[in-house]
Amino acid sequence: QGSRSSVVLTLKLKMAQARAGRLIAVIGDEDTCTGFLLGGIGEINSKRQSNFFVVKKDTPVGEIEDAFRQFTGRDDVAIILINQHIGQEIRHVLDAYDQTLPSVLEIPSKEHPYDPTKDSILRRAKGMFSAEDFR
């Protein structure tokens, strides 16, 4: 029970920090990044680092891993959105990530629907809660 309380407290803290001016970062295909940029999430910090990384068909996996590590190392990023099919390419890195901030969410893309069975973060979260927690 105590660990569930700490999870709820952690989630509340994350939400408060996200409201306090932290960014949403996106690692996605061109359509996904364009959509979020048109929605107004695009930012460049004082070090000239953007909060999005466009993955093309020929983008090396190492570059995707580097972008993920850069976003997770930034103090101004609260949430990282990553297309699930791109997350599959760096699954070993996502599975090893255990920090609460920035939070990582896998999202669908236009051409790749969301598959909850492939979302390791969702599987971990399911193990932390029971149906009674939501009553």
Would you write up a description of this structure?
The protein has six helices and four strands; from the N terminus they run αβαβαβααβα. The protein starts with a helix and ends in a 9-residue tail after the last helix. With 135 residues, the protein is α/β, with parallel strands linked by helices. It is globular and about 45 Å long.
Kindly summarize this structure in a few lines.
It is globular, with a radius of gyration of 15 Å. The protein contains 6 helices and 4 strands.
Which helices and strands, and how do they pair?
Layout: H1 2-19, E1 23-28, H2 30-38, E2 52-54, H3 61-72, E3 77-83, H4 84-89, H5 91-96, E4 103-107, H6 120-126
Parallel strand pairs: 1-2, 1-3, 3-4
Quantity of strands, as a count: 4
Strand order of the largest sheet: 2-1-3-4
Estimate percent helicity: 40-55%
Q: Unreliable runs, pLDDT <50, ≥5 residues?
A: none
Distance between the termini: 15 Å
Largest sheet entry: 4 strands, parallel
Q: How would you sum up the global shape?
A: globular
Number of helices: 6
Radius of gyration: 15 Å
Which structural class is indicated by helix and strand composition? alpha/beta
Summarize the helix and strand pattern as letters.
HEHEHEHHEH
Descriptors:
135 residues; alpha/beta; four-stranded parallel sheet; 6 helices; globular
